[in-house]
Amino acid sequence: LSLSLTPSPPPSLPRVNMTEPQSALLLRRQLAELNKNPVDGFSAGLIDDNDLYRWEVLIIGPPDTLYEGGVFKAHLTFPKDYPLRPPKMKFITEIWHPNVDKNGDVCISILHEPGEDKYGYEKPEERWLPIHTVETILISVISMLADPNGDSPANVDAAKEWREDRNGEFKRKVARCVRKSQETAFE
């Protein structure tokens, strides 16, 4: 008589369902990889352990930027046909940034639907590609915090301040968001 014990998955990963869509299997794998090999600058997990399509991330404001010291909470919502289409990303923590609209929605090329840009701002290779992962998305967002794209703003007011008064009003608003993020980071 031989018994074979298989270790149960970590508590943050729901059990594998054999009829699970490919997108769920891919998301499960990416989450396991991030848990096994964390990346500096962010952490990620599921909002609800039974829903692989909704993630919560904490992004640490990059060093030597106005966002340094901030702990910004955001949600990633994945479509059922991920990775063919990109997730949506929304900051839950208030953030003042040219590429984040006033509702918290992140507007960067890597999260735009694949294909040609009807406005001609982006090349197809700058937009979503199925090779991107949660890790590459979050690294791009950290890069966006360090180096905003003022030419394609989601928050026109923040972009105007960033261009015209970076060390004045823009810096004050970002500092207020950083302080608030520190106070509410682990609520």
Automatic annotation (TrEMBL):
Gene Ontology terms describing biological process: protein modification by small protein conjugation
A Pfam cross-reference name? UQ_con
Q: Which UniProt keywords apply?
A: ATP-binding, Nucleotide-binding, Transferase, Ubl conjugation pathway
- Give start and end of each UBC core domain: 22-183
Q: Which reaction does it catalyse?
A: S-ubiquitinyl-[E1 ubiquitin-activating enzyme]-L-cysteine + [E2 ubiquitin-conjugating enzyme]-L-cysteine = [E1 ubiquitin-activating enzyme]-L-cysteine + S-ubiquitinyl-[E2 ubiquitin-conjugating enzyme]-L-cysteine
Record: active site: 107
Q: Name the enzyme group at the top EC level.
A: transferase
User: Which SUPFAM superfamilies has this protein been placed in?
Assistant: UBC-like (SSF54495)
Give any GO molecular function from the UniProt entry. ubiquitin conjugating enzyme activity
The EC number(s) given in the record are 2.3.2.23
Name the protein family: Belongs to the ubiquitin-conjugating enzyme family.
What is the stated purpose of this protein? Answer: Accepts ubiquitin from the E1 complex and catalyzes its covalent attachment to other proteins. In vitro catalyzes 'Lys-48'-, as well as 'Lys-63'-linked polyubiquitination. May be involved in degradation of muscle-specific proteins. Mediates polyubiquitination of CYP3A4.
- UniProt-recorded name of the protein: Ubiquitin-conjugating enzyme E2 G1
> Origin organism of this chain?
Callorhinchus milii (Ghost shark)
